[in-house]
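User: Hey, quick favor. My workstation is busy. Could you predict this chain's structure for me?
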Amino acid sequence: MSEKLNENRYLEDILNRFSDKSAVIGIIGMGYVGQPLALRFSEIGFKVIGYDIDSNKVDMLNGGTSEIEHIANADIAKAVAAGFECTRDFSRISEADTAIICVPTPLNAYREPDLSFVIATCDAIAPYLRPGQVVSLESTTYPGTTDEEILPRVTRNGLIAGESVFVVYSPEREDPGNADFTTHTIPKVVGGHTANCLKVGSALYSTAIDKIVPVSSNRAAEMTKLLENIHRAVNIGLVNEMKIVADAMGIDIFEVIDAAATKPFGFTPYYPGPGLGGHCIPIDPFYLTWKAREYGLHTRFIELSGEINHAMPEYVMGKLVTGLNARKKALNGSRILVLGISYKKNVDDMRESPSVQVMELIRNAGGEIAYSDPHVPAFPKMREHSFNLSSVALTPDSLAAFDAVVLTTDHAAFDYEMIREHSALIIDSRGVYRTPSDTIIKA
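Assistant: No problem, here it is.
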């Protein structure tokens, strides 16, 4: 009977603390997912503690600034004034009522899931967890991760899931730079290890998010996130393949897509490009294909789309070589300017950017590489890529000094007419230029 009372006490206590906003919200990983979430919880009146291993990031946030372009420093400063703080001391997770994990889940060199950041985080906080806390994983991963990797680590010191600790999976759905959707307006999928876990997870997120979408299990929530991004990856793979076929036939694929999009039912427009970027779409499909092999399944359709998308930087490179050859120039020794190096327009997010892959292909072939990106003034430190470069200012004279311009990310800040007028050759991988020209090659 006493055990049942304790169970009810932990459950009722945390639900009450969410209801009256006396809970302390702990968020681990102060990146593109963690920062917006921290700001949202702070905005509605919760005390928030952020945890990160990057001392520079911790100092910046505590000083009221963010290194992420689309997050306003004023919003960080407001949160700090309201009590938000950031720390590298993971023992302080004991002060929080939640441990919301928002750390990277990349692929390793063999395109297999790399859960090292998730596992290291769990191992770091496990000794300091206490009864009554919520542990929620938001990082994208394969079905089974929360129950197979998180659960054993957070219960190793005697905590019981659904009774004294509440284990949840709720995938992030951030879209950096999208002004149409914010953290609180994007519906939140929530799964739990037990019914009590789901109840607590739903209560946590319902304080900050307008609509909660509960599902039956952590595995269902994990699969939901993968389906969302695999849907995009497969359709982008399809349209990238269509681009290649259309180009061989002398057809403008962007004209075709725009025409098809006038159909009011049964068609959703996706647009081709130089490859896939961002933390989710280039990576998530491989999490499922890896896990599916455990069940003796081969996800051929998903893997084929991955192969097509992964080959797009090479396709762009081929168009560049062809364009230079037509002008009796070799790529080796040519001066090449890459326009836009973030993974999508109007943001500074460099994660998995195909533009960087294009840059490496050009450099490896002997091209003299430069770039221009108003959102990335200096090439950042990246795990797998290194360029000692700063953004080139776009002027008629600077453009004229290059043998070719490769447009890989179509930022709104670019003066496309000026670029067209003063560039000797443009390789357009984004369909910016629709009017045929001798100096523009669509890629």
